């Protein structure tokens, strides 16, 4: 516990006091403005009545003309007063919505649609993905990749490892085409990823992040969220996705099963349960995904939950041609990968199976494993 309740109460109280002070000043200014408007209007009306009475006494003006003139003057004054208030509200609205308009008018550098959708792409992503001399840097930052080249074989588990900040998650972002490489190509067999339709391509990929995002609704709606046509997802398909992700048992244990509310950000579920629901959602969203990306999806799980997730992944590979890309540090996950790619200093430093990399003397991967083993021993005491 941080024991910061009083600190937060004081900070919140100060913010409320600041808002009250500003609102009080605004109220005083608004009252002074409208008061001056009304005072000036009454002075003007009194002047008109006085001068009009003199004209009536001289026979130059009738009572009806004076009444009509006074009525029109009052209506014009009220309209001008309302216009000033309306202008203030317009300025408030423009100030509050400027950021929304900026986001709305932003043109994405990578269009959501346009490019190859079917045919060659569907055939290609059943085979191999190739990073070919890829260089990349986030806008305004130093180059992250200088010359990345490696292959992601189809139907196998490829693990990407490296130290913090080496660009592991960026590999997933590039494969999802959230960014395009500054140099080089990402080839899906003979098709450049830049030539594919981004929306169609992302539909072929299921993603599970380190911190799964669940909404405050039912398990069913969380799994179906993101599906292109959720109304066409049958109950059998929903159960199949839950079973493949090893989530069916704990879902059926709830009294309301798939209609169980998960709470804000999935607060009613454990970390392992949230991850398995996220995997089920990835399977449903991508509609039989050909590539499954797990961005450190098991780093926050206990041993039992991680075993269940890994068991689900093995089941997926046995029953389909799905390709799995795992970005993780956990030895228990990496050890079962068919291929391990080690990133270091903007390039691929090592690649191979777990046993191959462990036999490299003074290898980067071997040092990472040894450091992790030492930390586990320290935590056991």
Strand content: 15-25%
Let me know the average pLDDT: 80
Question: Do you know the CATH topology of the largest domain?
Answer: Rossmann fold
Counted by DSSP, the helix tally is 13
Instruction: Give the helix/strand class.
Output: alpha/beta
State the order of secondary-structure elements, H for helix, E for strand. Answer: HHHEEEHEEHEHHHHEHEHEEHH
Domains, number: 2
What is the CATH architecture descriptor of the largest domain?
3-Layer(aba) Sandwich
Q: What is the CA-atom radius of gyration, in angstroms?
A: 33 Å
The main sheet comes to:
6 strands, mixed
Instruction: Please identify the top-level CATH class of the largest domain.
Output: Alpha Beta
Keywords: ATP-binding, Membrane, Nucleotide-binding, Transmembrane, Transmembrane helix, Transport
Domain ABC transmembrane type-1: 1-92
Main location: membrane
GO cellular component, one term: mitochondrial inner membrane
Overview of this structure, please?
There is one protein chain. The protein is an alpha/beta fold. The protein has 2 domains: about 5-105; about 120-380, P-loop containing nucleotide triphosphate hydrolases (Rossmann fold, 3-Layer(aba) Sandwich). It is built from 13 helices and 10 strands. The strands form 2 sheets. Strands 6-7-8-3-9-10 form a 6-stranded mixed beta sheet. It has a 4-stranded antiparallel beta sheet with strand order 2-1-4-5. β1 and β2 form a beta hairpin. α1 (about 5-55) runs antiparallel to α2 (about 65-105) and α7 packs across α9. Residues about 375-380 have low confidence and may be disordered.
């Amino acid at each position: 516990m941080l024991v910061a309740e009083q600190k937060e109460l004081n900070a919140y109280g100060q913010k409320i006091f600041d808002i009250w002070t500003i609102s009080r000043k605004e109220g005083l200014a608004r009252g002074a403005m409208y008061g001056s408007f009304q005072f000036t209007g009454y002075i003007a009306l009194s002047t008109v009545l006085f001068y009009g009475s003199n004209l009536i006494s001289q026979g130059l003006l009738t009572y009806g003309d004076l009444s009509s003139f006074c009525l029109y003057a009052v209506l014009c004054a009220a309209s001008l007063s309302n216009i000033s208030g309306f202008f203030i509200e317009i300025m408030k609205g423009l100030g509050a919505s400027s950021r929304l308009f900026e986001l709305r008018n932003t043109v994405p550098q990578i269009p959501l649609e346009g490019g190859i959708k079917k045919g060659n792409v569907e055939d290609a992503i059943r085979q191999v993905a190739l990073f070919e001399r890829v260089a990349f840097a986030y806008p305004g930052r130093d180059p992250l990749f200088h010359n990345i080249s490696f292959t992601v074989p189809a139907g196998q588990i490829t693990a990407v490892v490296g130290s913090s900040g080496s660009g592991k998650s960026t590999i997933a972002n590039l494969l999802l085409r959230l960014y395009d490489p500054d140099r080089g190509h990402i080839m899906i067999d003979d098709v450049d990823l830049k030539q594919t339709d981004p929306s169609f391509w992302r539909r072929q990929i299921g993603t599970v992040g380190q911190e799964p995002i669940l909404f405050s609704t039912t398990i069913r709606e969380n799994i179906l969220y993101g599906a292109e046509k959720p109304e066409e997802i049958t109950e059998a398909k929903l159960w199949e996705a839950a079973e493949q992700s090893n989530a069916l048992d704990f879902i059926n244990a709830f009294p309301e099963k798939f209609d169980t509310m998960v709470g804000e950000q999935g607060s009613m579920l454990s970390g392992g349960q949230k991850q398995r629901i996220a995997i089920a959602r990835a399977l449903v969203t991508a509609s039989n995904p050909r590539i499954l990306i797990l961005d450190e999806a098991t780093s926050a799980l206990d041993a039992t939950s991680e075993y269940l997730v890994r068991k689900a992944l093995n089941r997926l590979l046995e029953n389909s041609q799905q390709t799995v890309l795992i970005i993780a540090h956990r030895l228990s996950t990496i050890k079962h990968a068919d291929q391990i790619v080690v990133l270091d200093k903007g390039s691929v430093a090592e690649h191979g199976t777990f046993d191959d990399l462990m036999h490299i003397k003074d290898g980067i991967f071997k040092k990472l494993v040894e450091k992790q083993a030492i930390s586990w021993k320290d935590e056991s005491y």
